[in-house]
Amino acid sequence: MSRPLVRLLGQGVRWASSLRGGGSAFPGLVMEKLHPAFVAEELAKLPRGVVVISGTNGKTTTTKMAVQLLRSQGLRVFTNRTGSNFVRGVAASLLAEMDAFGRLDADVAVLELDEAHAVHFVKQVKPRYALLLNVMRDQLDRFGEIDTTRRMLSQVAQATTGTVVLNREDPRIASLADHVAAGATVEWFGLSDALRPMFPSDDDMRDVLRQTEDVELDSEQPSVTRPHADVVLNAVKANSVELDVHGEHHTATIDLYGVYNQYNAAAALALSLQVLGESADVASLVDELSRVTPAFGRGETVTVEGKPLQLLLVKNPAGFRLSLASASAEDYATMVAINDAYADGRDVSWLWDVDFDSLRAGGVDIVSGVRAWDMALRLDYDLVDVGSVEPDLEAALQQFIANSGDRPMRIFCTYTAMLSLRKILGGMTHVDAI
């Protein structure tokens, strides 16, 4: 069968799958079997090449921000909008974006890939740019030790032909500068000294005592030379940030829940500057940050019975910790939903590395999900009052909404719990399609 016919077959399978309401990666699987080089061949045609964004946390939101920033500067951007991380997921997204003649209207591809899938992807497609965010203890039952995750990301760095943008403050990411291929360059994004304690690395999270001592004795510590960063997050204030971009001060509005998303914005901006090169308009890029809306489940807000309800994805100690620090518990009705499916990570022992003391003031209205009782026990150890425990997500959500009073609502949830809650909420109110 000729390549055009294979591609048309793939597009037909995608159309049929969409009519049945699912199977987003299945058309990509068809292409993977019938034309294995499809993704590599199509992406090779893009004049500005391929961007890969990876790391254990922040990929989806950072990818969304980078895509929006680049589009605001006039670039036509192809991306895997559903977040399907497999090569077949990228293939399915390509089929969805191509016209009937197999043409893709794009200048550059910006792809979110998790660490393991990125390794397989870069064997087929050499990215021109890579943004590597962090290495944290995320779903260790899938990937093993965090140094295994680092080794995966090192292969992405080695495969990148143009520029690798690295997180200066994560020691495992920073060390990847030694793995960049000859001829490729390294650029950085980072934090001011004042903000570093707010964004602990995995090593900091594992040694709270050392972190505390470092903060207390900061003035007595010898200065450590860090590489110069193109973009530095200097200060955060509610929904605004202060950024140093190429040595110049900028203030940006970022209406995304959580200080970690403000750091993700610095990462997306640093990447965009590299892709755009001399054509980058820094002032307009900073201004565009104010128009970025949350990715699904990452601080996404829906309106239920006239009140806002935020969905906050939590996957590891650092992410949960920063989500908790982003708003006062007294201001919200709070629900926690913990599942342990494969996509969540089967081992939920990481919950014991999260400090839930900040929830004591407002308590948790209801705990739900497959591991509801485990979560309730964890909260009890931190003396956090739990109103009720209801493992069934739909029953818990209805109870939560009914008993929230006049307070805005927030739900901390693992990945599959978030997907289930979005589906249930879709029957109650408008929820954006994924």
From TrEMBL:
It is an enzyme of class 6 (ligase). It catalyses: beta-D-GlcNAc-(1->4)-Mur2Ac(oyl-L-Ala-gamma-D-O-P-Glu-L-Lys-D-Ala-D-Ala)-di-trans,octa-cis-undecaprenyl diphosphate + NH4(+) = beta-D-GlcNAc-(1->4)-Mur2Ac(oyl-L-Ala-D-isoglutaminyl-L-Lys-D-Ala-D-Ala)-di-trans,octa-cis-undecaprenyl diphosphate + phosphate + H(+); beta-D-GlcNAc-(1->4)-Mur2Ac(oyl-L-Ala-gamma-D-Glu-L-Lys-D-Ala-D-Ala)-di-trans,octa-cis-undecaprenyl diphosphate + L-glutamine + ATP + H2O = beta-D-GlcNAc-(1->4)-Mur2Ac(oyl-L-Ala-D-isoglutaminyl-L-Lys-D-Ala-D-Ala)-di-trans,octa-cis-undecaprenyl diphosphate + L-glutamate + ADP + phosphate + H(+); beta-D-GlcNAc-(1->4)-Mur2Ac(oyl-L-Ala-gamma-D-Glu-L-Lys-D-Ala-D-Ala)-di-trans,octa-cis-undecaprenyl diphosphate + ATP = beta-D-GlcNAc-(1->4)-Mur2Ac(oyl-L-Ala-gamma-D-O-P-Glu-L-Lys-D-Ala-D-Ala)-di-trans,octa-cis-undecaprenyl diphosphate + ADP. SUPFAM superfamilies: MurD-like peptide ligases, catalytic domain. The active site is at D347. Keywords: ATP-binding, Cell shape, Cell wall biogenesis/degradation, Ligase, Metal-binding, Nucleotide-binding, Peptidoglycan synthesis. Residues 53-271 form the Mur ligase central domain. Its EC number is 6.3.5.13. Pathway: Cell wall biogenesis; peptidoglycan biosynthesis. One of its GO terms (molecular function) is ligase activity. InterPro entries: Lipid_II_synth_MurT, Mur-like_cat_sf, Mur_ligase_cen, MurT_C. Residues 313-418 form the Lipid II isoglutaminyl synthase (glutamine-hydrolyzing) subunit MurT C-terminal domain. Forms a heterodimer with GatD. Belongs to the MurCDEF family. MurT subfamily. The lipid II isoglutaminyl synthase complex catalyzes the formation of alpha-D-isoglutamine in the cell wall lipid II stem peptide. The MurT subunit catalyzes the ATP-dependent amidation of D-glutamate residue of lipid II, converting it to an isoglutamine residue. HAMAP family: Lipid_II_synth_MurT. This is Lipid II isoglutaminyl synthase (glutamine-hydrolyzing) subunit MurT. The lineage of its organism: Bacteria, Bacillati, Actinomycetota, Actinomycetes, Micrococcales. The gene is murT.
